[in-house]
Amino acid sequence: MVRYVYDFHEGGRELAGLLGGKGANLAEMTRLGLPVPPGFIVSTEACRAFLTTGAAPDGMSGEVARYLAALEESAGRRLGQPDDPLLLSVRSGARFSMPGMMETVLDVGLDDDSVQGLAKTSGNERFAWDSYRRLVQMFGSTVMHVDSALFEQAMASLKAGRGVPDDVHLDAGDLAQLVDTYKKLIHEQTGEHFPQSPAEQLRRAIVAVFESWNGERARLYRRREHIPEDLGTAVTVQRMVYGNLGPDSGSGVAFTRDPATGRAGLYGDYLSNAQGEDVVAGIRNTVPLAELERLDARSYRLLRTHLRTLEQHYRDLCDVEFTIERGTLWMLQTRVGKRTAEAAFAIAAQLVTEGLITAEEGLARVSGDGLARLMFPRFDPRATGEVLARGLPASPGAAVGAVVFDSAEAVRRAAAGEQVVLVRQETTPDDLPGMVAAQAVLTSRGGKTSHAAVVARGMGKVCVCGAEELTVDTSARRFTTRDGTVVQEGELISVDGSAGAVYPGAAALIPSEVMHYLESGDQSEAAAVVRAVAGALQQADGVRRMEVRANADTPEDAARARRFGAQGIGLCRTEHMFLGERRKLVEEMILAGSDARRARALDALLPLQRQDFIGILAAMDGLPVTIRLLDPPLHEFLPDRTELAVRVASAEARGESADPHDVELLDAVSHMHEENPMLGLRGVRLGLVVPGLVAMQVRAIAEAVVERTRAGGFPRAEIMVPLVGAVEELRIERAEVERVLAQVSEESGIPVSCPVGTMIELPRAALTAGRIAEQAEFFSFGTNDLTQTTWGFSRDDVEAAFFSAYLDKGVFAASPFETLDREGVGRLVELAVAEGRAARPGLKIGVCGEHGGDPQSVHFFHAAGLDYVSCSPFRVPVARLEAGRAAL
Ligand code: PEP
Ligand code: MG
């Protein structure tokens, strides 16, 4: 029988898909015997049914009623019981944490009668009315869709009328009046009354949580975090406990280790006499958790014990939300906590050392994206100047941008290409688009677990929060520091999320320690994170099957790539050697009307090319260097046609005769003009129709090999032919390559043999890979062109033109130029691997498109059986790590 509701005693964390992360972990804590207020969970399955049909599935409400009855029974109180009501929290919880993105309704069960009962049983009239006020407000905005600003205005005008700065100064009478105002507001706005039936409140709150799965901010968050759209959220219904019953109560958030640096020890924030939402919203400034030891030593000790239990059980950093109700500690939530990249590496290393996880598990817990983040620079402490303000270091890294004060402005300026820092008193989930658009987030209120901090850390954005000394005036669009310095919207500031500092202007940056280590291999006196990164890379190198090479065209890049651990060059794009001063020689070669003139131009290019190859082969001595013959259309090396035409035409308009060289060039460029140059005379096609070009390039390679060999080196050049679509093209070109290699061998007396292979970057090449392998000694997938030609997407245009719309509409979750499209391009890769190796067993196969450095794609290439990935030098460590993780 299908069932939709589960008691906390019935599940565990293995059911996260069904019960949502929050529900499953509450069940797990219940199972561990931790103090969790009792409750039940409406499953994600019920939500999915609701989202499909628009109605709660049959049987769900009956089940909810049964589980509620059991909860009432165990609590000894009923929902809506006038003299002593059972009150409930109704919270969302998807499989993957989406902090603050969906809805919550607290204090469900209060009505005009039971609020009196709550006042009596709690002995605190103000508390009872404040709870009722919160319910009407939350229910009004979340369930009945009344603009939340209207409630805030009503609250603000009441405070102004009473002449008090803060809602804590409103008394029970004031709050009762506010409840009345709120109820009227709801009626005015919706034509409906706030429901006095607690059962109806519960039913509608559950539906509102379901609906919030498709709320705008939830959808945006999912897209960004690549969370599937069709999971749905579970709904956790739980007995309320109160942290706002007086000084012996409070709420907090705690981590088993520091989520910013990974340092061992208890971290967190505590707010006395407050509800959990107050801590996260950053409405009042919290105190560090250590302070709780002073305030309530018993609860602190218990909390510490529970945290240890959780960390040992989950074998990972956990974070928890807890509430102390009149001296009794309750655990309200736990999960394996989000952390910065630095903390991820440090914690994985610590847990391996502590023997809690294996080295393989440690490797699984770090990521290439995290490593890439650690390779970013930070501010030079000597060059930052005076601190403008200090706050909490909530999410590390360094960012410079223009100050903006709201989400819309952040989005607007970022779209225009400006770097911005979003400055808010505190952020709410509505600020999400602005946070996505900004380089950094700065808030004047809230702790390290405030919304701003949690969300920024998850996104890898720089964040400083709780910078109390700032007065943020959003309407005047400026903030003021303690010493009276005023910073207006648009002014530049620098935000250091690692130190929690804000500086005026654009501060200078220094490279990261991790980068220093990667470049130098030096980890003496290194920070813990550097040692952790070094350990993870070593582990990855030990387990990975794929090699990692680099795409490099200069000796400097080759040397850097080698320091980063590259095991050769997978792609040396020779066209990059045709630029700058050499452009004139290339021009000469293209314009040559006679064989003799062309031969002269090629002869002039030859020694230059040879010198390039000598440098690269020396930098990669002993390792394979795949040199690709010229690929782009030749007119790319000539001046722009329009510019030339304008030059010639304006000379003529002035009655002068145009420069004859310009005329000759214009003629050549017009002659060579192609409507679709990417699909035109390029790649192997050039080699087949431009006489002497291949011979010159191959001679330069072969002579470089000779020279390096004579110098005592061990050059391992490989020659790669681009854009092949038919085996015949490769056969013809290869014959020419072999001819020149034999010639140079003979001339020099040193046998030069270079493997000759091809790029697979056209669908036809992939589809006929078996034939092509007859002529190719290796394959290298050019997934940039293969993506371009498989999708029919111009790689130079489409990303800016319409990919954001495609991402919005969910056509794909990531640009196929960044992350390999497994379904389409990936199938061509698999087919070419299978047919290529069937024709030539042991065929060496790699990839040299941008995807070679993309973590998700690396995992695909591993699974597809590739021998190596090749990527830009800076991505080499990332690819090493991910190739290792893929092999786990
Ligand atoms: C490719 O197409 O993937 C490739 C590596 O070649 P290029 O980017 O130079 O076209
Ligand atoms: Mg290409």
From TrEMBL:
GO MF terms, alphabetically ordered: pyruvate, phosphate dikinase activity
Residues covered by the PEP-utilising enzyme mobile domain: 418-500
Keyword Metal-binding: yes
UniProt xrefs under PROSITE patterns: PEP_ENZYMES_PHOS_SITE
Annotated ranges, domain PEP-utilising enzyme C-terminal: 538-884
Domain of life: Bacteria
Known EC number: 2.7.9.1
Cofactor: Mg(2+)
Key words of the record: ATP-binding, Kinase, Magnesium, Metal-binding, Nucleotide-binding, Pyruvate, Transferase
InterPro entries per UniProt: ATP_grasp_subdomain_1 (IPR013815), PEP-util_enz_mobile_dom (IPR008279), PEP_util_AS (IPR018274), PEP_util_C (IPR000121), Phosphohistidine_dom_sf (IPR036637), PPDK_AMP/ATP-bd (IPR002192), Pyruvate_phosphate_dikinase (IPR010121), Pyrv/PenolPyrv_kinase-like_dom (IPR015813)
Pfam families: PEP-utilizers, PEP-utilizers_C, PPDK_N
Catalysed reaction, written as an equation: pyruvate + phosphate + ATP = phosphoenolpyruvate + AMP + diphosphate + H(+)
Domain Pyruvate phosphate dikinase AMP/ATP-binding intervals: 18-55, 60-285, 294-345
Keyword Metal-binding: yes
NCBIfam families in UniProt: PRK05878.1, pyru_phos_dikin
Similarity comment: Belongs to the PEP-utilizing enzyme family.
Protein name, UniProt field: Pyruvate, phosphate dikinase
